[in-house]
Amino acid sequence: xxxxxxxxxxxxxxxxxxxxxxxxxxxxxxxxxxxxxxxxxxxxxxxxxxxxxxxxxxxxxxxxxxxxxxxxxxxxxxxxxxxxxxxxxxxxxxxxxxxxxxxxxxxxxxxxxxxxxxxxxxxxxxxxxxxxxxxxxxxxxxxxxxxxxxxxxxxxxxxxxxxxxxxxxxxxxxxxxxxxxxxxxxxxxxxxxxxxxxxxxxxxxxxxxxxxxxxxxxxxxxxxxxxxxxxxxxxxxxxxxxxxxxxxxxxxxxxxxxxxxxxxxxxxxxxxxxxxxxxxxxxxxxxxxxxxxxxxxxxxxxxxxxxxxxxxxxxxxxxxxxxxxxxxxxxxxxxxxxxxxxxxxxxxxxxxxxxxxxxxxxxxxxxxxxxxxxxxxxxxxxxxxxxxxxxxxxxxxxxxxxxxxxxxxxxxxxxxxxxxxxxxxxxxxxxxxxxxxxxxxxxxxxxxxxxxxxxxxxxxxxxxxxxxxxxxxxxxxxxxxxxxxxxxxxxxxxxxxxxxxxxxxxxxxxxxxxxxxxxxxxxxxxxxxxxxxxxxxxxxxxxxxxxxxxxxxxxxxxxxxxxxxxxx
Length: 568
Known about the structure:
By secondary structure, the chain is of the alpha/beta class. The chain has a domain at 445-567: GMP Synthetase, Chain A, domain 3 (2-Layer Sandwich), CATH 3.30.300.30. It is 34% helix and 23% strand. The chain has a nine-stranded mixed β-sheet, with helices on both faces. A five-stranded parallel β-sheet has the order 4-3-5-6-7. It starts with 13 loop residues before the first helix and ends with a helix.
């Protein structure tokens, strides 16, 4: 495929990024946020101020006796300043998952050999016990009990000679970032990334998607995750956008409206939840028939015409929301079609922490529903050992590849072979060059007859049921057939919303919940599938599945929980 691309913007390191803030964008607003969700005051930070804060903090950090600084907090302005202050000072930043329990945070500090840490006061008790020599609290107004004040360091940096900072020569191919992959501390790996790798990904993104200084993106995915930090924070600011910092997940819709947001980066689960709410509102207003007619009539119209037709949806989301970048998991085709019909420009993408992160994506010129787009410029993607359907492991050769797993050469060699990164994901590339993800290699269920089942395919269908909030499909060995043909039984754990279930089945009794859901599975899900994909058993619950902060199901932990519950 000879894809149409934008010119793009090339950067060598984060110093050049900060230089853009000081020159090209200095008078524009870089960040907008509130101190508390209830506050009526909006704080606006210009790019010029952002650059000054980065350099002032960096100068103070250089006076501390540390070379590797961990960073943990909710999404906030100080996190972004700290990230670039650390890295432009030639130090290594270690972003940590804000949702981890205290023992895991301390373990990751130790594993990463962090000798410094910048944190919000939410983690004060944990940090008092941590072994780091330099501790900096974002919320302290002055130094206290051996913990340094972020604001005092910033103030000191303003009055410090910047020559040491200015004279630092960065090697953009050195380790600059250590990121831990999702999982518990026993299995998470420490990914080493360079500024070169991330800057190459930023360059590729700038050739794919056009966002401008007129855009304002809402940041709500956790910034410690490379998808949000690269795509919203670093790529967004390289284009001069304004980043509105979300007050929290329950405030997303409110923030979209009050900040007049034009775009955001998210995971498919959130889009599917939002889409269900849109369809529910249409149904409650008795507009389903007319909306469906309008969708068909204007399906091939340009995006601006669609936005005029369906303005009443846009108004409920602030009126300006247009660009949505989604990644991290497969997404339901009907949901994508729905957003496109209503005038949203949805871009699906695919990547991993180890690839800084984006490998493939859609742009405004070339899209195919159900795919995650095509390889970004400079990236080569192949399917390793494809089966008769063309499905195999996705492997990639990219300049944005990690340096390796920190102090884990064995694991590094297992995934990087002959210059290709082996993703562990399964998929295929169609005749037009579009990449389709079918599932994780380790999650794929293989029956005795060799038939392959991808849980995500069935979960997408189950999640369409109006009362289902999420689900997890897994294989279980059927012990009842031990003396005959033992094979795997497909099971589904279904998380339902009781209020929505009662709307679908009025006057339902508590002891009938499982029967009603099971009937829907048999008639609405199994009927769409060949017999070998039939779900044979269900577990129902209202308790959310165990997930990472980027909303990926922790399947192993969930399976252990199911087993423990069944044994007791």
